[in-house]
Design brief:
Blueprint lengths: L2 E7 L6 E7 L1 H9 L10 H11 L4 H5 L8 H16 L3 E2 L9 E2 L6 H18 L2 E7 L6 E7 L1 H10 L7 E2 H11 L4 H5 L1 E2 L2 E2 H15 L4 E4 L2 E3 L25 H26 L2 H14 L10 E2 L10 E4 L7 E7 L7 H14 L3 E6 L5 H8 L5 E5 L1 H10 L30
Parallel strand pairs: 14-15, 15-16
Antiparallel strand pairs: 1-2, 3-4, 5-6, 7-11, 8-9, 10-11, 12-13, 13-14
């Protein structure tokens, strides 16, 4: 059986891993081969039947995505039902979240294969395409990549099988990537702020939200407006969290915190890249002052200009001014090569300085790191983009504290039954 790898998330730790699942074409054929009762079949029942047919392990059956939904049902089976519905191979007379029926009455296997073949052809040949700009990771050079047009993505978003409680848009993007059968190159293409495909889907989703065809539950989470008045249990008792035990609230809070923190880091980097180069130089000095270097922000000095290979800032090592640290702030997407560090070292030599900090929004090559490690007697600290935004969060630079919720738990020893003397 042909398989693909899908992303799953450990609900206890929030860590992602890959899990093997039946390939889309295998699932499509199995859906067409299902026995459809007179009352139709739900995605839930179909997923249970198909899991047995494919002899999935317990791990495969119970694997959850980042939205705490089962991967097999919501990311593997449900998208194929929606695809068949869109192509009129299946029908759903009762509307969203009701049972599916075969559109035709023929059960001949050859006709089924013919229907699937023609479906494959229509899917791949008739979808309008659009060009998008991506960046090569090694050189930063721009190139064009072909993706399904926004109109096609909007229709796929409208057809998506949304849980009543909503789903994160990045999970929808991954499911649609399978539906459109994107190549690895299309899935992994990046631009300066993230993945091209995910941004392409986000744009289409925002258009639908603005036109009230989709509903944004909270940042990054959407659902179909038709589901807002549907109870969580659904029409057929089909709860989006009914495939297994829901983790305790504190686990969900921890996972949401990690996801929020990751999004915050990504947004901070985007904000830095959106601002002028001199803003980054000032930000770096603000951060160092908050970390305890120098006396005050007024004592930290911005010098030079971005891209000159020299010194961008000067700050005292301590409040007494016993030594001076020179700062280079480089805002770019590609990793810092060793020649930029050599230029910085030369600038330190010119100033007669021994200490420097090189901060970037990207990272450093291995050759650069090795060069810095071998510097004697100079000491240069390297801070990459990930470390930068974490330090900003830790020292409240460019961020503010939102609402604080304190989780309390039962104090077990208070309710413990002591071996008290019976006064009765």
């Amino acid at each position: 059986m042909e398989t693909v790898m899908k992303k799953a998330v450990n609900p206890n730790t929030g860590q992602q891993h890959l899990i093997e699942m039946p390939a889309p074409e295998v699932v499509r054929q199995a859906i067409l081969d299902l026995e459809y009762p007179d009352g139709g079949i739900s995605v839930k029942d179909a997923a249970i039947t198909l899991a047995e047919k494919f002899e999935l392990s317990d791990e495969q059956k119970n694997a959850k995505n980042s939205s705490n939904l089962t991967v097999f049902r919501y990311d593997v089976v449900a998208p194929q039902f929606k695809r068949f519905l869109r192509e009129n191979e299946l029908k759903q007379p009762g509307g969203p979240r009701t049972r599916y029926f075969l559109a035709g009455s023929s059960s001949d296997a050859s006709n089924t294969e013919l229907r699937e073949s023609s479906l494959e052809y229509r899917e791949t040949a008739d979808v309008e395409k659009v060009k998008r700009i991506a960046l090569k990771s090694d050189t930063g050079e721009e190139y064009e990549i072909t993706l399904p047009a926004t109109s096609a993505v909007k229709q796929a978003l409208l057809d998506f099988d949304y849980p009543a409680s909503g789903i994160e848009i990045r999970d929808v993007a991954e499911a649609l990537a399978d539906q459109f059968e994107l190549t690895d190159q299309q899935r992994e293409a990046r631009y300066k702020y993230g993945f091209v495909w995910r941004r392409h889907v986000n744009i289409a989703a925002n258009i639908l939200v603005d036109s009230e065809k989709l509903f944004r539950i909270r940042r990054g989470w959407v659902t179909n407006p038709e589901y807002l008045d549907v109870e969580t249990s659904g029409i057929d008792g089909d709860s989006p969290f009914s495939d297994g035990d829901t983790p305790p609230p504190e686990v969900g809070v921890a996972q949401n915190y990690r996801e929020h923190r990751d999004r915050l880091k990504e947004e901070l980097l985007q904000r830095i890249m959106d601002n002028p180069p001199d803003f980054f130089e000032k930000l770096v000095l603000d951060l160092l002052v908050e970390m305890g270097y120098g006396g005050s922000r007024a004592d930290a000095e911005v010098v030079g200009r971005s891209g000159d290979g020299g010194i961008d800032g000067i700050i005292e090592e301590d409040k007494l001014g016993l030594d001076v640290i020179y700062v280079q702030a480089k805002r770019q997407h590609n990793n810092i090569s060793v020649h930029l560090i050599r230029d910085f070292t030369g600038a330190l030599d010119h100033k007669g300085a021994r200490k420097g900090i090189f901060i970037t929004t990207s990272g450093f090559t291995q050759k650069t790191k090795k060069f810095v490690e071998e510097l004697i007697p100079k000491k240069i600290i390297l801070i990459n983009g990930k470390q930068l935004v974490q330090l900003m969060i830790d020292h409240n630079v460019g961020v503010s504290s939102g609402d604080c919720y304190q989780l309390k738990e039962v104090k077990l020893d208070y309710f413990a039954i002591d071996d008290a003397v019976d006064d009765g």
